[in-house]
Amino acid sequence: MYACLYKPPGSDDVNRGVRLADLAQDFSPRFECHSADLVSIDVSGLARLLGDSHAIGEELRRSAAARGLRVHVALAATRTVAMVLAYARPGLTVVEPGGEAAALAPIPVGILEAVHGVPMSVKNGAQSAPGHIDRPAVSVLKRWGVKTLGALAALPATGLAARLGQPGLGWQTFARGQDVRPLVPTLPEERFESSVELEWPIEGLEPLSFVLTRLLEPLSTRLERRDRGAAALHLALGLVKCHDDRDPPVDTYTRSLQLPSPMRDVRTLRTLILLDLESHPPPAAIERVTVLIDPTPGRVLQHTLFTRAHPTPEQLSTLIARLTALMGQDRIGRPAVVDSYRPGAFEMDPFRTEHPHVDRTDLEGSAATATSTVDIVSALRRCRRPVPARVAVADGRPVAVTSDRRGLAGGHVLACAGPWRTSGNWWEPSSTYWNRDEWDVSLSDGAVYRIFRDRVTDGWWIDAIVD
Q: How far apart are the C-alpha atoms of 451 and 109, rounded to whole Å?
């Protein structure tokens, strides 16, 4: 037996802060919230406590009224019948087993519009809604003479599928009051947080590591039971107040780590936190430690037999954290193009350890197509720091280029193209401002360089080499 509670829109509730989920939780742990105004409850075990179906329904209405809620209550042997009757009829409706078809038959077919957002089936592990129906579809059913759910349930399934497709069969199943999936209980939002008050303040990272291990172990166990992984780590350190000039500026020191992939290994999480604190140490001794984890669905690994094993996300995350602590936050990552005309402009984005799957056949086909249509004859290898050069100029054009850098001997200019004048970021600090004249030159030693003259300092530089 299932009960369905529906709160109609516009109802004047005395206490607007009360949710239907709170009411359902008082009666059974097996309830499912379809929306904020609709909830289904498995009440099959309440007969020995409250009585028959009518007594259970009256108790639900009485409890809702005590909370200031005005709801429709329906009880039936299937959730679909209880849901439709809760939408269609106010007050309390009880359908005895075997009377489902007769109870749904006189209800207008337009009720399908009201319940279109309720998921009615499960496909490939995800909820779908074959109950979705729009007004034109309802109009088509009415033009056929189908005005009630009973008439829709009596139509031949083969002809209905031929005219309306798979959604039509879903609507007919709904009209017959059949459940196509079991009740999926709504679980309360679980908070993965752990905290400890220290008896004595600690200052070093070594004693802090033992505290972090104590906090992370139960969190990792809970994540594993829920098949979840940590997407982000939030650390809050309560600081000691010294009541003198050395007082820290804040009482709580917080740090947040965005993890590149879901993980729950205690040693890895502890190492990432310690490496971050090594680069950003707290300003005072610690007397309270709190760890909060943002959960995400666990990582699914599919290993192959004929490819080399890649480093695990835990190993790669630890390596990136160690490099970040050594080199700096803005010097580790992957280069990304920025929206700027400044030569060589780029920024560092965080590494990603998971990438979307690419079909190898599609990749090879795309590469073959690109090779057949685009003939790449040269590539520009940019010097990340421009190399100082000595340039001889005649009639406003470079005639010789030399440099002290090994491997860039230079020579006479055989051919040149330019200049191309570029400038920008004059409103930014001097480190990002540029104003230059660029040339492409072919030298007697066989090299092709891109050089430029800085119009601010009047100096010449080698910016790139053409391969």
A: 76
Q: Are residues 165 and 120 in the same domain?
A: yes
3-state secondary structure of 435: strand
Rounded to 5°, angle at Cα 24 from 19 and 27:
145
- Over residues 288-311, the pLDDT tens digits come to 999 999 888 876 666 667 766 666
User: At what angle are helices 266-279 and 313-327 packed, to 10 degrees?
Assistant: 10
Q: What long-range pairs does 428-433 form, CB within 8 A, spacing at least 24?
A: 432/342
CB burial class (10 A; 0-12, 13-18, 19+) of residue 130? buried
| Lowest mean pLDDT across 152-166, 331-345, 433-447 | 331-345
Domain assignment present for residue 370? The answer is no
The residues, ordered by sequence, that sit 6+ positions from 332 with a Cβ below 8 Å of its Cβ are 320, 323, 324, 348, 351
Residue 160's pLDDT band, with cuts at 50, 70 and 90, is confident
Q: For residue 330, give the H/E element and its range.
A: none
3-state secondary structure (DSSP) of residue 392? strand
Q: How many other CB atoms are found less than 10 A from the CB of residue 201?
A: 14
Q: Is 184 among the domain residues?
A: no
pLDDT recorded at residue 190: 78
Average pLDDT of the residues in 15-21: 68
* DSSP state letters, 191-237: -EEEEEEEEEEE-SHHHHHHHHHHHHHHHHHHHHHTTEEEEEEEEEE
- pTM surpassing 0.85? no
Residues 55 and 149 in one domain: yes
Rounded-to-10 torsion of CA 24, 30, 34, 39: -30
8 and 111 assigned to the same domain: yes
Q: What residues make up the domain containing 451?
A: 380-466
* pLDDT tens-digit map of 344-373: 777 777 766 554 443 434 434 444 444 344
